[in-house]
Design brief:
Order of helices and strands: HHEEEEEEHHEEEEEEHHHHHEEEEEEEH
Shape: elongated
Strand order of the largest sheet: 18-17-16-13-14-15-19
Oligomer: single chain
Number of helices: 10
Helix content: 25-40%
Distance between the termini: 9 Å
């Protein structure tokens, strides 16, 4: 069995996932520490709002980062115990829920409805590529890892909850023809038991357990560990400290007011009247007065008013150095003490655990030791078949014709040059500057100053990029797009599985299905960020006119713009002929060789 963790690119993708989780957790620590520092330092009254926002952001980032670290640990356990298997897949969008992916079992044809666990801006990377294939490692009854073939990002997927929801998701996948999809080439599990799409998720490839070793010196898979207790202790401590820190800082500014004693019992129990320090309304209520105060002050007493939390407006004071009245002080002190102790114990314990794990961790087999199948030749027939599997890109309104207008009026060239960002940040600066002319004070004015400062910084960065490279690149592409003599080539439009960027694979204009590619031309996605494929040619194969050839990049590659259906497709890089390292690597990703069946390995 070839462990999934030992497959080329898997360990690196898992490391990138852990690094993102670590950066998110570090951002939460920065936000919390920054909020505490701002609260401790003397400042105006609006610093309390800054502290509250910083603590809230810190808590949110801490939850996201800690959850991602837990998911990364679960991924490592599954990948170290199981193997990859290739499945035909169909994405299913759901309202008010995370998107789902339905996998087809290569052995039985049963369908596995799974929910992708990812933040919104990473969910598109979990969709199948143009070949409609995803790799899976895990058990569909409990969860597992999804990725695109050969080097994609890793995603945790779990079974769709609810029998009705599973049936609806599977029904939508059946409408798109998933049961009749051809079984994809790629790794197959050693066992693929019968599974169904009924009320319970199907039983899929069972993770292999137990020691494994081979002649190449593969180390035994890591023994599954129990979920880390220290990270949960740290997370719980952060959640406990989240309200305690701003409450403790706010208690320093609790206002002291005068009370009018209406009646008093011999033990010091009083009924007092006081004026609210915020809205000026009068209140009457019980309070414990100091029985030993001077008789001249019999009708007068002092107290503090809580200015935070659910106890805001309650009275408290001290008699014989003992607090009485509102429990706000005691609750805040208990939360701060418990959270600080829990955070200290969790950090120390987690550090010791990581140190021990680092000493005794499993040995990773180099990616080069993974056996790979023989790659079929990337002929026009094969790449055209792969291109034909991808969904229709959708239609987008035409942009201005670069042959008759200046380049800065062309939508695609504005985005390539960075002019769009310059215009947006200029508008933000003007908006913030206009609001600063209004008579605003306090936190509102500070917020606008912060918005204006960030906008100015972004404007400076985008203007520098525009002046030093963006404008020149746009003019260069405009000159190439309007070159007089075109060169006609056949093309197959594919998408890079790493980032889903479109790529034109170019073939001789006159030839047969066995022709090999002449070059590759990476493209800039013409659509918006949420729908980047909008505006691509409706046909994944055909003929293109290549214009340019006059200018070259620093490494000697020509600058070429492809025209298809009388519309330009702006390149993201130079025209690269086959035989170069970059072109070979890109072709390998676009038409990867299948991995051998694990049952046939020695």
């Amino acid at each position: 069995m070839v462990r999934a963790l030992d497959t080329a690119g898997t360990a690196e993708a898992l490391d990138r996932y852990r690094e993102r989780a670590g950066r998110t957790l570090a951002g939460s620590v920065v936000a919390l520490v920054g909020g505490v520092v701002v609260g401790i330092l003397p400042g105006p009254a609006w610093t309390g709002d800054v502290v509250a926002w910083a603590v809230c952001l810190g808590v949110v980032f801490a939850c996201v980062g800690a959850g991602a670290l837990v998911t990364a640990r679960r991924m490592r356990v599954v990948l170290a115990a199981g193997e990859w298997s290739a499945h035909a897949a169909v994405p299913v969008a759901r309202r008010l829920h995370s998107p789902a992916v339905v996998l087809s079992s290569p052995a039985t044809g049963a369908l596995w409805p799974l929910t992708v666990v990812a933040v919104r801006w990473r969910q598109d990377a979990a969709r199948p590529g143009p070949d409609g294939v995803l790799w899976w490692c895990g058990d569909p009854r409990t969860g597992g890892v999804l990725t695109r073939p050969h080097g994609g990002e890793l995603f945790w997927a779990k079974p769709v909850r609810g029998g009705g929801a599973r049936r609806r998701v599977v029904g939508r996948a059946e409408e798109r023809g998933l049961p009749t999809a051809v079984a994809p080439s790629g790794p197959r599990p050693a066992a693929d038991p019968q599974s169904t799409a009924g009320p319970e998720p199907a039983a899929g490839p069972q993770p292999a357990t137990g020691p494994q070793s081979d002649s190449a010196g593969t180390a035994p898979p890591a023994k599954p560990r129990r979920p880390g207790r220290w990270r949960w202790l740290v997370l719980a401590s952060v959640l406990v400290l989240a309200p305690a820190v701003p409450w403790g800082l706010a208690s320093v500014d609790d206002p002291q007011i005068d009370l009018t004693v209406l009646s008093e019992e011999p033990g010091g129990e009083c009924v007092v009247r006081w004026k609210d320090p915020w809205d000026g309304r009068e209140h009457t209520g019980p309070f414990r007065c100091d029985p030993d105060r001077d008789p001249l002050l019999a009708k007068w007493e002092t107290a503090f008013v809580v200015s935070y939390g659910p106890w805001k407006g309650e009275l408290y004071g001290w008699v014989d150095d003992e607090p009485h009245g509102s429990p706000a002080q005691d609750v805040t002190a208990a939360l701060a003490t418990g959270g600080a102790l829990g955070l200290l114990v969790g950090l120390v314990g987690g550090g010791v655990s990581l140190r021990r794990r680092g000493r005794g961790g499993p040995v990773r087999v180099p990616a080069a030791a993974t056996p790979v199948g023989t790659a079929p030749a990337p002929t026009y027939e094969r790449l055209a078949a792969l291109a034909g599997r991808q969904p229709a890109p959708g239609v987008r309104g035409p942009e201005a014709d670069v042959r008759s207008v200046p380049w800065w009026r062309v939508r695609g060239l504005r985005r390539i040059s960075g002019l769009s960002e310059v215009l947006v940040t200029t508008g933000c600066c003007a908006f913030a500057g206009g609001l600063l002319l209004l008579p605003l004070e306090g936190f509102e004015r500070v917020s606008l100053l912060g918005l204006g400062g960030v906008s100015l910084l972004l404007l400076a960065l985008w203007t520098f990029r525009f002046l030093t490279g963006g404008a020149g690149a746009a003019r260069l592409l405009a000159r190439a797009a309007t070159a007089p003599v075109p060169v006609v080539r056949r093309y197959a439009l594919l998408h890079d599985p790493r980032d889903d960027a479109p790529v034109l694979v170019l073939f001789p204009a006159h030839g047969g299905p066995e022709d090999l590619p002449e070059a590759v031309l990476p493209l800039v996605p013409p659509g918006p960020q949420k729908k980047p494929r909008l505006g691509l040619p409706p046909s994944p194969t055909g003929t293109a006119e290549l214009r340019g050839w006059l200018d070259r990049t620093d490494d000697g590659q020509p600058v070429v713009v492809a025209w298809i259906d009388d519309r330009p497709l702006w390149p993201a890089g130079p025209y690269r002929e086959t035989g170069t390292t970059e072109a070979t690597s890109l072709l390998t990703r676009l038409a990867p060789p299948p991995l051998p069946d694990p049952q046939t390995l020695p």
